[in-house]
Design goal:
Two copies of one chain form a homodimer.
Chain A: H1 8-26, H2 29-36, H3 40-46, H4 50-76, H5 80-94, H6 103-109, H7 113-137, H8 142-166, H9 170-182
Helix pairs in contact in A: 1-2, 1-4, 4-5, 4-7, 5-7, 6-7, 7-8, 8-9
Chain A binds a DNA duplex through residues 1-5, 28-30, 38-42, 44-46, 50-51.
Keywords (chains A, B): DNA-binding, Transcription, Transcription regulation
Protein name (chains A, B): TetR family transcriptional regulator
DNA-binding region (chains A, B): 28-47
Chain lengths: 189, 189
Amino acid sequence: MRRIAPDRDQLLGIVAEVFREHGYEGASLALIGEATGLGKGSLYHFFPGGKEEMARAVIAHIDGWFEDNVFAPLRDSTDPQAGIGHMFEATDGYFRSGRRVCLIGAFALDESRDLFAGQIRDYFGRWIMRLAEALARSGHRPGEASELAEETVAAIQGALTLARAANDLDVFSRALRRLRMRLGLPAKI
Amino acid sequence: MRRIAPDRDQLLGIVAEVFREHGYEGASLALIGEATGLGKGSLYHFFPGGKEEMARAVIAHIDGWFEDNVFAPLRDSTDPQAGIGHMFEATDGYFRSGRRVCLIGAFALDESRDLFAGQIRDYFGRWIMRLAEALARSGHRPGEASELAEETVAAIQGALTLARAANDLDVFSRALRRLRMRLGLPAKI
DNA sequence: GTCTATAGAGTGATAGAC
DNA sequence: GTCTATCACTCTATAGAC
């Protein structure tokens, strides 16, 4: 038979955008079906657990992207400053300079939080931990590094909220510029 | 007829909590009816525009609270530092030290943003503007004051998201403590 | 026949409008 | 309370690949 369905990776990307735009409650199966071009049969074939499993898979997919493109470089760069610089570039790219919101952050505020609390806590916890380690390796005292890491991740989340609220992308790029400076990185070209 | 309904102020407070806990989509009229003790008939009597009007009224109600308890003190305090200190206390109290999320911030991330974009932009815009003015009056250069104000409001939003994600209230109080320091206020007792 | 992927009618529950 | 629309979801049927 013909294979119309995109592979799982593409599929999760499309479903993620529906959740991102409409929230967990607002993302109806009708919308998801429309966006993916799949009928309910196919959707339930891929995700027997229904909408909840779709969301779980989407969160895991995003988490995996950050693991590969943000957390791992923070952990593995021999030069911690380079890892932190990489984090800012990847973050700016991922959120399309403020055009995109953080789906996991949005889920954290929603009632859907209870369903996905573990995944949400893990994602942010790992981000802060990897950044704190990199900051410690680049010379900050451990306690200070932890606070600075927490502050940085919170600032990114807040900037996404504010950029969206003000409908002004500059809010996000200004925030990233300030954070780069505070973390001792050279101003970006 | 018997008057079971609380007055409009109380009513809006109750409806606000339902939106806060469940989001715009997730807050069903059944939930709202249950929380308020009002039937659908009464709800449509108070809010002929239905759920959308309820949300609009709730946002306006919250905005009014911040106007009175945060924005006005920032504008009117003869000592700008006192106004800023007052802002932190009111903010900490309002968000119950991180137990409560910012409904308007949550709406900003949701699809409901399109419905309430004007109100959302106004709220955050006024907060940042009043804070920037107070910072300018307390000695910061105007451009610096603007950036610092934006950074502060974003940090508060981000801390609320993170506190909720980590299920750890300390995230919020640590953020407020750092912000107080950065804005030149004495550490809180 | 078996497996995977598909479409979509049909389920009861519940949504918001009135 | 009544209305209709839509919700998440189930189920049956069907396709071609093996």
